[in-house]
Write a structure and sequence with these properties.
The protein is of the alpha/beta class. It contains twelve helices and 25 strands. The radius of gyration is 21 Å and the shape is globular.
């Protein structure tokens, strides 16, 4: 059996209506919901499809090609995700919605609030994007005894650099941090300030975060493939991709009766804890040597004066790709020199991984709910260095 799929506006002023539509979808009293951002024409076109009867939510994701594809999430998967999250964090709470509700991390705040019988406070976006003073105002509007928020690392970085934002951050019982790799230096800084940060790993295909602080949520299983990529299983897995059986076959597999999601992330498992070390498709090749940007970023992020960093490879006639560290200085500090960066990275990861250039910028280009746009960073770095990006 199938059911209709309806596009629902998911701007900051639409959350009440979106909540009502999700309630009906979860109870099978209405069509499945496709949250859309204002002006999202190509995404809205997905709503012309019908979905399996157990699907309550379809989240649009661009994937690596930029073409929108719909990830189908069942009511059972959403309920399992919400229950496992509450169990791990210590019970239901009131949420601050600080991420776009058309992305999985944002719409999950709405779903978790709905299932917990609470109402989220919606952080109003401004022309300048996320603002720590707006976060503080939204936090002040919370009335629940317990409070949770989901953030991305860029937001956490800005809050820690702002007195009122940092004070508001410390009032949360849990701050879920995901959407991108978290530099250890940023995490240490947040926890040293007594912020209750919980790192999360997951994606639209797992109803958002399903591994917290390296440990899988209840019912979730993690293992590594022969090539080191992360595989996930459990009740939170997506039903599949809307109208894309080819993607289903490429992404989901069965082994001894268990359905697994094959991710494109590289990981390590030590003592049952997962560490994600980067994406397979982000690996750079410089002078014939493979370099994982995530490892270089962890080293550079720990240097004095570095607030944020993204490592990319620009075309280079001698090296094939030259490793470039694009950094956002912290609090008006001077960025580290090329010599300082090369020395630190070479000492930790070896000389081939050491960046040959350092580019300082005010902000890193972002996409989606606040993830660093690596293509945008590459284009920016190539332009600064007078190279052609690919």
């Amino acid at each position: 059996m199938t059911r209709a799929l309806r596009a629902e506006p998911a701007g900051p002023g639409d959350v009440d209506a979106l909540t009502g539509a999700l309630r009906a979808a979860l109870d099978r009293q209405g069509p499945a919901v496709l949250p859309v951002a204002p002006g999202a024409g190509p995404v809205r076109a997905l709503s012309a499809e019908r979905v399996p009867d157990d699907v309550a939510l379809v989240v649009a994701t661009s994937g690596s090609t930029g073409a929108p594809r719909g990830v189908m999430l069942s009511a059972a998967a959403l309920r399992a995700s919400a229950a496992a999250t509450d169990a791990r964090l210590g019970g239901p709470a009131q949420w601050l919605l600080a991420l776009p509700a058309h992305h999985v991390a944002g719409v999950q705040v709405v779903v978790r609030s709905l299932l917990a019988g609470t109402r989220p406070v919606v952080l109003r976006a401004t022309d300048g994007g996320f603002r720590p003073d707006g976060f503080a105002a939204g936090t002040a509007a919370l009335t629940g005894e317990r409070r949770y928020v989901s953030l991305v690392p860029t937001q956490l970085h800005r809050l820690l650099d702002h007195d009122a934002g940092r004070a508001a951050l410390l009032t949360y019982d849990a701050v879920l941090l995901g959407g991108a790799a978290t530099p250890p230096a940023l995490l240490e800084r947040a926890r040293s300030a007594s912020a209750r940060v919980v790192t999360t790993y997951g994606m639209s295909e797992t109803c958002g975060g399903c591994v917290y602080d390296g440990s899988a949520l209840d019912g979730v299983r993690v293992r590594l493939g022969a090539d080191g990529t992360v595989l996930l299983a459990g009740p939170v897995l997506a039903r599949g991709y809307l109208g894309r059986p080819d993607l289903d076959r490429a992404t989901f597999t069965r082994d001894e009766g268990v359905r697994w999601l094959r991710t494109n992330d590289l990981g390590r498992l030590e003592g049952g804890l997962l560490t994600v070390v980067g994406r397979a498709d982000d690996v750079l090749v410089t002078g014939g040597v493979k370099v994982a940007p995530a490892g270089v970023e962890r080293v550079v992020a720990g240097l004095d004066g570095v607030g944020e960093v993204c490592v990319v490879g620009v075309p280079d006639p001698e090296w094939g790709q030259a490793v470039v560290a694009v950094v956002v200085p912290r609090g008006g500090a001077a960025p580290p020199t090329v010599a300082q960066v090369r020395s630190a990275v070479a000492a930790t990861l070896g000389a081939p991984a050491a960046p040959r250039h350092v580019v300082a910028v005010d902000r890193l280009p972002l996409r989606g709910p606040g993830k660093v746009d690596r293509r945008g960073v590459l284009a920016l770095a190539a332009a600064r260095l007078g190279r052609q990006s690919t």
